């Protein structure tokens, strides 16, 4: 394994960072999250049209660039540093891989070029608070989390004109503004219970969406109500939805881990700059040994998280079934899934870096005017959506067989 980035990968990182440094800062973040969409359409146009970020991991046949998960992760690392709100995660990391893996050729040809061009945003709607479970990050995702059979979640039923959905979904990332919803619904009743994915277009009759208050304002979320909404089945009834969601979840966790590592690195940078300038007892507080030790511990944790995230992104983009095409995820079993473990480490590093930043900034670090709290909320919000950390690690340990091996050794003794 060659751990060095290619010239193209370094260029992606440099270009995204330069654009965000030039056009994005704390004040722009506050202005964007207060807008109706929850992000700046002008910035999204620049990211999509000038840099082509939504199509980085999509095949060239559908208007994409044909890169792998690593390139998406590097771009998201820079957006994480700036805490730039955009539909990139919901569209390119969660929804587009499912369209590519499960969709019919007609569905791919219609939707993916528009996503790659930034003309269409999409969101994954998973019932309840089961997003991390549906993605296979904290448990086996082959249960009835989509509806439970009789009530709750989202139910799908056949109609003369196709399929109809009814139910409610909370915590849908960018669900209030997405032009396309990929909805997980329970179908088949008790006789043949199964989870299927459906496409719901913007403006569909019976679709009601409302943006909700969220802890992390840079991750806008929505409540989606489906009142006998016409829907289109994604792919066919025989696709392996659970495996596709798990493969998407592994890649998404790797991207999220890299994004969190970028945010943690930026939070640490801001704190180091502050302690070099803030003085107590006639000297900069950064010269105190206790402060140096605290920041050194944070630095080690951030670098370890970044290494784990890079490896997870590389692992998610390789494997026997993959030759640079994200569309093949979910069709065969990948030998290694380490995204959840990398995400746990990165979220913990971000939470630590943000907490230390708040403490070492002193009184100003506790104010709404300062941006330190935004990084702490990003760590906490992502943990609520995709974690928590202890469950990410517990499931990774369970899948690796650590507990069973430990038990067998104990019995042998």
Automatic annotation (TrEMBL):
Requisite cofactors: FAD
Domain (Acyl-CoA dehydrogenase/oxidase C-terminal) ranges: 253-399
GO molecular function, one term: flavin adenine dinucleotide binding
Keywords: FAD, Flavoprotein, Oxidoreductase
Domain of life where this protein originates: Bacteria
Domain Acyl-CoA dehydrogenase/oxidase N-terminal: 6-118
SUPFAM superfamilies, per the entry: Acyl-CoA dehydrogenase C-terminal domain-like, Acyl-CoA dehydrogenase NM domain-like
Keyword Flavoprotein: yes
Pfam families: Acyl-CoA_dh_1 (PF00441), Acyl-CoA_dh_N (PF02771)
Keyword Flavoprotein: yes
Family: Belongs to the acyl-CoA dehydrogenase family.
UniProt-recorded name of the protein: Acyl-CoA dehydrogenase
Native source species: Streptomyces avermitilis
The encoding gene: acd_1
